[in-house]
Amino acid sequence: MSRLLLGVVLLGNLSVCVKAQVTLAPPAQVKFNSTDYRNILHWTPAPSSSSLQYDVQWKIYGEADWLDVDGCQGVQKLHCDLSAVTSEPREWYYGRVRASSVASSSKSGWTLSPRFSPRWDTKISPPALKLNLTEQSIVVRVKSPRTLVRKLHSNLHYTIYVTNTNGKEEVFQINCCSNKLTLKNLDHNSKYCLQAQTVIPLQAKSSARSSE
């Protein structure tokens, strides 16, 4: 009987401390933005959240394992360059991001991006034009972004649009290995405006026209 009473007294004096677990809201609007095969994953922080860090992972569609992205673990920025790990144009990829708080040692759930294809989802930039004028001609040289040339050099073509003061437009095609066009037989009393467009025939993809 005395042991039972002692046990009740000891139990009555116990105090239990419970640390409240802070639940972090996950990042929002996780998606790839890709231009000329430079594949950047972007996200936005949850409302009313500050001083957070983010972890980024990626995987190939159909595979089970998620992989950490080097240089994008515990970062405070709201984007991550995944070009190196999403470099195969024919594959489909996912990215995901979670938030963590150093102050509370808590982590949010993961937010998944839509499925991403470098081949179909990347936007192509128009080339830059450099013009050299002579008394008899205009020599047009075309230069594409370096990342695009490295990825698709043999598949790049260019369309050059030449418009004169009368509004007449002529269209010229340049293949990947030339990058130069010479315009001859020009009217010396006319003004000419030029634009260019990058074309990838194998993907049925083209850029917008460059500015004049």
From TrEMBL:
Q: Name one GO cellular component term.
A: plasma membrane
Pfam entry (one): Interfer-bind
Secretion signal, residue range per the UniProt entry: 1-20
Q: Which UniProt keywords are given for this protein, alphabetically ordered? A: Disulfide bond, Receptor, Signal
Q: Note whether Nucleotidyltransferase occurs among the keywords.
A: no
Family according to the record = Belongs to the type II cytokine receptor family.
What is this protein called in UniProt?
Interleukin 22 receptor, alpha 2
Q: What are the residue boundaries of the Fibronectin type-III domain, all occurrences included?
A: 6-107
Recorded hits in InterPro entries, A to Z, give:
FN3_dom, FN3_sf, Ig-like_fold, Interferon/interleukin_rcp_dom, Type-II_Cytokine-TF_Rcpt
Do the record's keywords include Signal? Answer: yes
Q: Cite a single GO MF annotation.
A: cytokine receptor activity
Task: Outline the extent of the Interferon/interleukin receptor domain.
Answer: 122-211
